[in-house]
Specification:
By secondary structure, the chain is α/β, with parallel strands linked by helices. Helices cover 42% and strands 17% of the residues. The chain is built from 14 helices and 13 strands. The strands form three sheets. An eight-stranded mixed sheet has the order 1-11-12-6-5-4-2-3, with helices on both faces. It has a three-stranded parallel sheet with strand order 8-7-9, sandwiched between helices. α1 runs antiparallel to α11, α7 crosses α8 and α10 runs antiparallel to α11. The longest helix is centred in the first third of the chain and has 17 residues. 50% of the residues are buried.
Length: 369
């Protein structure tokens, strides 16, 4: 993905436009063009997998709730999860096109493999918004986090954790799946921070992001480098970080090296509390999901000014240039800011994090209910 612009105030701008009655260039005293659709719309939502708990716990219910809110409970969401199967997702997309949904929000299992389906939707007059991953094909818009920034945040945190020994430190890079364009962006961002500052002893691309594949790769790295010679691990997400830590422990690691992550999953937050995992990247799923719903409804209802306000960034995919986009900022999650991130945003409660197993660790870092 190549970024050509950045705008952080899209939500506030869109909200103010709506509040002032400015939609499709019309002020409070004007008369607007008839929207393409009313409130009785169907949003097709295609999510990629269930390994990561975020999709079922946050993305789907938040989008469903927001669509209902924006359409006065007249709109609905038709939902399907591909369970990490690109062929299954293509079939799900084809069914939604046949069912004549009004707009599609697609988080692609395989960004390239979905391109034909996106074209078929386009041919049927159904707009497609790429969600979280930049799908190929003629998409109308893209909403995700600033993925290169995610990698930069991870890489910078790892270098800081290694301190004055960084230059002589050997690290392992556990990247995501090659079928996910986000993985390449995470990697590029991380490399911008790691290259020349640490010794990257081994690098792996993890098939399908599966923790078991990451664990197998980490075991290979330990054999090749030597357990005591691994000073840190760049892990692209929390699921793999957990597998990396398991491999290190099973091989006999006493003091664990710093391990990065992403997604702020509950298990990862608890590993950060206990000191097993150094950091994660917190991405506000409510912010991303709510924005996706707003974009989908605005697009299908023909609210062009509101839609433009929500998509002030521009990105290029391998097939489409200058895709209207919104890139949501991210935050490095460490022991120091758990309360001010995932707890404050209502993702988890202190009680959920600080179970009996982690009570003592929570007390030691001042995380108390």
């Amino acid at each position: 993905m190549r970024r050509t612009a950045m705008a952080m105030g899209a939500f506030a701008t869109a909200a103010s436009l709506t509040a002032c009655g400015v939609v499709d260039g019309i002020g409070g005293g004007g008369s607007s063009a008839t929207p393409k659709k009313g409130d009785d719309i169907t949003v097709g939502l295609l999510l990629p997998e269930k390994e990561n708990s975020r999709y079922e716990k946050f993305d789907y219910p938040i989008i469903e709730k927001k669509v209902a809110e924006l359409t006065h409970d007249k709109g609905k969401v038709e939902y399907a999860n591909a369970e990490q199967d690109a062929d299954k997702q293509n079939s799900q997309l084809a069914k939604m096109v046949a069912d004549k949904v009004d707009v599609l929000v697609v988080d692609a299992v395989d960004a390239k493999a979905i391109a034909d389906g996106v074209q078929k939707a386009k041919d049927a007059g159904i707009p497609v918004i790429a969600y979280d991953r930049l799908a190929q094909g003629p998409i109308d818009a893209y909403i995700s986090f600033d993925n290169e920034l995610v990698g930069e945040v991870q890489g910078r945190a790892l270098v800081e954790a290694l301190g004055s020994h960084a230059a002589s430190s050997k690290i392992v890079m556990m990247n995501g799946s090659v079928t996910d364009p986000n993985a390449a962006q995470f990697k590029a961002g991380a490399m911008a921070e790691l290259q020349g500052k640490v010794n990257i002893a081994k690098t792996y691309d993890t098939k399908d992001w599966k923790p078991e594949n990451a664990k197998a790769n980490m075991e290979k790295a330990i054999t090749a480098i030597g357990l005591d010679n691994i000073a840190g691990v760049y892990s692209a997400n929390d699921g793999m970080a957990g597998a990396v830590i398991q491999a290190l422990k099973e091989t006999g690691a006493g003091k664990l090296p710093p391990v990065t992550g992403q997604d702020a999953e509950l298990d990862a937050v608890q590993r950060i509390v206990s000191g097993d995992q150094y950091m994660s990247v917190y991405k506000s799923y409510p912010q991303e999901a709510n924005a996706a719903a707003e974009m989908a409804v605005a697009r299908v209802q023909g609210r062009s000014i509101e839609f433009d306000a929500l998509t002030r960034d521009k990105v290029d995919s391998p097939t489409t240039e200058k895709v209207p986009a919104q890139l949501v900022p991210v935050v490095a999650l460490t022991q120091d800011n758990i309360r001010n991130t995932v707890v404050q945003d209502g993702i988890y409660t202190v009680k959920q994090i600080c179970t009996s197993k982690f009570k003592s660790d929570c007390n030691s870092i001042g995380l108390k209910g």
